[in-house]
User: Fold 5'-deoxynucleotidase from Vibrio barjaei.
Amino acid sequence: MTRLEQQLNLLMELDKLKAVLRRTRVRCADGRFENSAEHSWHVAMMALLLQEHANEPVDIAKVVKMLLLHDMVEIDAGDTFVYDTAAYETQQQTELEAAKRLFGMLPDDQGEALFSVWREFEAAESAEARFAKALDRLIPMLLNYHNDGQSWIENNVSKQQVMQVNQRIEKGSQVLWDKAKLLIEEATENGWLRN
Assistant:
């Protein structure tokens, strides 16, 4: 198989991400569930628009790359609801196996380079990864807030759960964490989160 054929094969495999549904609904009139491809695009746009709010200077191209790559593994692993603690126990290994398969479809040099970026995101140790993780946590919260707490209500989520899961935003952006805390308080006052 040629290099181009390998690259095109992965691109066609990535189309499957459009069929992976998340628990958050989009804001458009039909109120359907967001898919993982839409989520990846939306959070990459957040990076471009909100870069100035990162705690540290970041290479925004790398942040965008991380955000476009981070959920590819959901093609095999599916989306894990962030408040489902039982599912999180097996998620890491399942996603690692999926990453190996997907990045393994590419020519070795390209596959390893992108797999390295994916692993950096997962480790959340670099400034870019911390900011990317912050954005990845913030966008579902924003959608929930602007959809009157939809997935929080449907899944009986508490204020404590939202605070605990989303506190990682602070590691990437104090400004965005401060905003998130205000949204959590308002959502609790509105009855969208259990107190």
